[in-house]
Amino acid sequence: MPPLNRPLRLAVALDGGARYSASAFAERAQLAERGAFDFITLEDSLGQPAPGVGRLDALAVLASVAPATERIGLLPTVTTTHTEPFHLSASIATLDWVSRGRGGWIADVSTSEADARLIGRRPAAPIDELWHEAGEVVDVVTRLFDSWEDDAEIRDIATGRFIDRDKLHYVDFETATFSVRGPSIVPRPPQGHPVTAIDATAPHARQTAARYADVAFVRTQDPDTARAVRADLRERARAWGREPDRLIVLASLSVDLDASADAVALAELVAAWHTDGAADGFHFRPRDAERDLRLLVNGTVPVLQHRGLVRHFYPGATLREHLGLPRPTNRYALAREASAR
Amino acid sequence: MSNSPGTSRTTRRAIHLAAHFPGVNNTTVWSAPPTPQAPQVSRPGSAGPTAERSATRQSAFGSQIDFSSFTHLARTAERGLFDFFFLAEGLRLREHQGRIHDLDVVGRPEAITVLSALAAVTEHLGLAATVNATFNEPYELARRLASLDHLSGGRAAWNVVTSSDAFTGENFRRGGFLDRADRYTRAAEFVAAARELWDSWPPGVERGRTGGATGSFAHHGQHFDIEGRFSVPRSPQGHPVVIQAGDSGEGREFAAATADVVFTRHGTLEAGREFYADVKGRLAAYGRRPDDLKIMPGVTFVLGDTAAEAQEKAAEIRRQQISPQTALLTLEQVWGVDLSRYDPDGPLPDIEPDYEAQLSQGRVRQADPRAIVASWRALAKEKGLSIRQTVIEATGRQSFIGTPEAVADELDTFVQTDAADGFILIPHLTPGGLDDFVKRVVPLLQERGSFRTRYTGSTLRAHLGLAQPLGEDTAA
């Protein structure tokens, strides 16, 4: 059981409601920020979410939300199956730059033959293969973040050099399905590594989440399931040589609140789950984007704040700071310094 | 004066202006003293060590990557009532003699993402992203551009570029490379496929659920074999504006058939007129009118209180752009051999060039190195110039140098005499490089009646005077 003083993480989904209006997204994000949520999420998929229903590119939407907000983290879903890892890394790094260190992504796969036909490059593949590849994509995307050391830009007038090229690195990453030479075109983002999240509800995704994710979601309405998946993820993370506390497991709850009483009841519920060690925090998925988000911010969060389970404000500036995750050291800088010794 | 056939004007032609974010090459001066900063909006969220460090850097040099540089330049352009803000793209860092090129500004954000953020801090300014048609796929890119068009209320543009080199391909699943001829057929098919996707939703059905077939498309071509349902409803512009850069015969034909704006490099009045007449003359074959395609050369400028002061400033900027190291490297690209033992302040090397060698990758190759070597040698001999002086003299002269009045006059002459429809201005400083132009030249263009005094439309198509694509779609 985690100690009671362990902070409770809170995130909320921005899905639903007006889908194509930048100002509607910005208003929802500002509301979530008033509730001091650690981050907001926005779903995405390559194809239509349901027949005849549209959606905008989630990373672009949250980039447009960045200047309208100040502290809240921004996690769009980004698919890895039919996309270019080099482009993904550049886009996610850019989200981190435009938000000054509040960027991240939820890595997901495209499983259907219909999605494959939208791109027309390769057929649909078994889901286990896709999640294995997604892990490789997360790996190379993160290596590309590190392909620039933080102090690579030197602007040394005496030698005429803008960069110290010894601090830029080829990643030379090769898998069965892709290869990337590097370095990135984007300097190392403010957080070093923007936060990587994975929905680990499905068993197929769990190994990849345990190995690579900073945040894992478990979609369930049952605390025992959440606790079991959390234990499984932590065990797997340990087997990969990771410190299990660096993997934050959030129970992802669908919420449908009719009134303030429901919002208070939800606070009681999540406090109990948290006390029982079912999750490190919660990701709320409102059934009604406008109504439920308002009730969460005005009803649920104040109760949790009153109990001292969540903070009243953002003491840090970056998403990693909100989540208590350290800024990662640069693997290539470490290697270079080690070889210089 | 030009006598372009078939046109008689009673009013002045309107100039279109765009702002190019300073590029990652030696035209961008990074060693200059601090540039004055526009007042920054106080942002509590920007506290912390990263922001502090970047704030220092910003005031000292002007960051090429901090978002504040992009907001500064975009807001300056919007204050100047520009048509659009333009971002270039690079997909592989340049190399020289097998090592990463380290003398120029390098590192930039991914264009569509930074423009999506800029959409939130601007209201009218068009937002143009350069995106390669070789290393992307139509469905995904059409989706991202349509998303930007929604988020910006109809201000998105796509500068289509192609690339064929295996060097860049090493960063991508699809790898290199395409034959030169295939680059344009792929790009043309790419744009056509993207427009089919943009047309797959009827106008005005964004709200709520529609029929299950909404967004259906099928494109079976030489380069792309795709089908399904597009996920983004028709965007405010219908089709984001398509820009094309490239001066070759194939490029001109592609532009005439496909583009809304051409980004050219024809700096002189004569060359501009020739290009303008040629490209506009190709439009009729595609059933298009001359005004359907805007020709906008990329240009640089230097302003001074007097003509002499402007010339002095221009010379000083060229010295900053061509450091001793950059002079040697430029020479090596022409000579094709390592010249690191030469003194940049000494005479040109008397050794013979290796015309077959390619020392640099990721940049456009010198067109005719033999001719360049001959002319540089003649120039150095005639004027008694060192290596660095020769390179300064022979390369990178700014397009418009003078007082604000003189520059306004020259720009206007280009547009009123059919050498251009407007300009993509490339400042040499980040992020303050357009401040003076907007403050001092724009009002003069407005006084002449050649430039708007307010935005009259809300979309980029409206700023450029381009029709909505809807009419032709319903006819098709």
TrEMBL record, chain A:
<keyword id="KW-0288">FMN</keyword>
<feature type="binding site">
    <location>
        <position position="77"/>
    </location>
    <ligand>
        <name>FMN</name>
    </ligand>
</feature>
<dbReference type="InterPro" id="IPR051260">
    <property type="entry name" value="Diverse_substr_monoxygenases"/>
</dbReference>
<keyword id="KW-0503">Monooxygenase</keyword>
<dbReference type="GO" id="GO:0016705">
    <property type="term" value="F:oxidoreductase activity, acting on paired donors, with incorporation or reduction of molecular oxygen"/>
</dbReference>
<comment type="similarity">
    <text>Belongs to the NtaA/SnaA/DszA monooxygenase family.</text>
</comment>
<dbReference type="InterPro" id="IPR036661">
    <property type="entry name" value="Luciferase-like_sf"/>
</dbReference>
<dbReference type="Pfam" id="PF00296">
    <property type="entry name" value="Bac_luciferase"/>
</dbReference>
<dbReference type="InterPro" id="IPR016215">
    <property type="entry name" value="NTA_MOA"/>
</dbReference>
<protein>
    <submittedName>
        <fullName>Alkanesulfonate monooxygenase SsuD/methylene tetrahydromethanopterin reductase-like flavin-dependent oxidoreductase (Luciferase family)</fullName>
    </submittedName>
</protein>
<feature type="domain" description="Luciferase-like">
    <location>
        <begin position="21"/>
        <end position="278"/>
    </location>
</feature>
<feature type="binding site">
    <location>
        <position position="44"/>
    </location>
    <ligand>
        <name>FMN</name>
    </ligand>
</feature>
<dbReference type="GO" id="GO:0004497">
    <property type="term" value="F:monooxygenase activity"/>
</dbReference>
<keyword id="KW-0285">Flavoprotein</keyword>
<keyword id="KW-0560">Oxidoreductase</keyword>
<dbReference type="InterPro" id="IPR011251">
    <property type="entry name" value="Luciferase-like_dom"/>
</dbReference>
Automatic annotation (TrEMBL), chain B:
<dbReference type="Pfam" id="PF00296">
    <property type="entry name" value="Bac_luciferase"/>
</dbReference>
<protein>
    <submittedName>
        <fullName>FMN-dependent oxidoreductase (Nitrilotriacetate monooxygenase family)</fullName>
    </submittedName>
</protein>
<feature type="domain" description="Luciferase-like">
    <location>
        <begin position="60"/>
        <end position="417"/>
    </location>
</feature>
<feature type="binding site">
    <location>
        <position position="184"/>
    </location>
    <ligand>
        <name>FMN</name>
    </ligand>
</feature>
<feature type="region of interest" description="Disordered">
    <location>
        <begin position="26"/>
        <end position="59"/>
    </location>
</feature>
<feature type="binding site">
    <location>
        <position position="130"/>
    </location>
    <ligand>
        <name>FMN</name>
    </ligand>
</feature>
<dbReference type="GO" id="GO:0004497">
    <property type="term" value="F:monooxygenase activity"/>
</dbReference>
<dbReference type="InterPro" id="IPR036661">
    <property type="entry name" value="Luciferase-like_sf"/>
</dbReference>
<dbReference type="InterPro" id="IPR011251">
    <property type="entry name" value="Luciferase-like_dom"/>
</dbReference>
<dbReference type="InterPro" id="IPR016215">
    <property type="entry name" value="NTA_MOA"/>
</dbReference>
<dbReference type="InterPro" id="IPR051260">
    <property type="entry name" value="Diverse_substr_monoxygenases"/>
</dbReference>
<keyword id="KW-0560">Oxidoreductase</keyword>
<keyword id="KW-0288">FMN</keyword>
<dbReference type="GO" id="GO:0016705">
    <property type="term" value="F:oxidoreductase activity, acting on paired donors, with incorporation or reduction of molecular oxygen"/>
</dbReference>
<keyword id="KW-0503">Monooxygenase</keyword>
<comment type="similarity">
    <text>Belongs to the NtaA/SnaA/DszA monooxygenase family.</text>
</comment>
<keyword id="KW-0285">Flavoprotein</keyword>
<feature type="binding site">
    <location>
        <position position="248"/>
    </location>
    <ligand>
        <name>FMN</name>
    </ligand>
</feature>
